[in-house]
Amino acid sequence: MPDMKRWRVVDVMTTAVVSVGADTGYKRIADLLVARGISAVPVVDPDGVVLGVVSESDLLPKLNYPDRVGRHPLLSRRRDTIRRALGDTAADLMSSPATTIRPDASIARAARLMEAARVKRLPVVDDADRLVGIVSRRDLVRPYARPDSDIRADVITHLVSGFWIDPSTVEARVVAGVVTLTGHVDRTSTRHIVVNATHTVPGVVDVVDQLTADIDDDAATRTGWYRGHLFSAEPRDIARSPR
């Protein structure tokens, strides 16, 4: 299982990728999509460099306009639709350039790219833009299918190694991906750090914060005053305190 801090595209992507060449015909592409139960195929050159992607939606214009748009003059401004309706090969049908991602990118970045590009999958390419895999939306939700015990172990590891939290002071209980944090920390700012850090662990659905803290340094932020020590009776002005 990949380390919690290193969940990357390479950890969830599919490497046995079906691809086609630029001269692959419409019917062959349709056959591949149906036979393999996939919704798109990358188009690559002879060296494996990604040229574009042909998806189910790229095949639909030919179905929508079977008369090859001869009777649809209003489509003259929809050049992409016309190109695909008339297209017979992957070069005509593909969306290009393809939105791609590198194997070492985070799964969060992959999710942002998919949302921005409004696509359901991303070809994964190496430094030379050669196809090495594909990552889908389903792949990105895989961390949420992890066992609760694995998620809990990652939460504890993350808090201890990343934020130096004493494991004897904070306990994490995980049920269906929801992490309940109990225990005691020194300050409310530390409490916020613990909660926010827990949210970043892959597979965490939500965090229930039941932590307590000795010092409310949130109050200092709100008022501009703080007590120099837990037992100090003399408050200090943050703006005037010596640095």
UniProtKB/TrEMBL annotation:
Domain CBS: from-to ranges: 13-69, 94-151
SMART domains, A to Z: CBS
Entry protein name: BON domain-containing protein
Protein's UniProt keywords contain Protein biosynthesis: no
Matching InterPro entries: BON_dom, CBS_dom, CBS_dom_sf, Diverse_CBS-Domain, UCP036990_CBS_BON
Annotated SUPFAM superfamilies: CBS-domain pair
Domain BON: from-to ranges: 147-215
Stored Gene3D superfamilies: 3.30.1340.30, CBS-domain (3.10.580.10)
Keywords assigned by UniProt, alphabetized: CBS domain
CDD domains: CBS_pair_BON_assoc
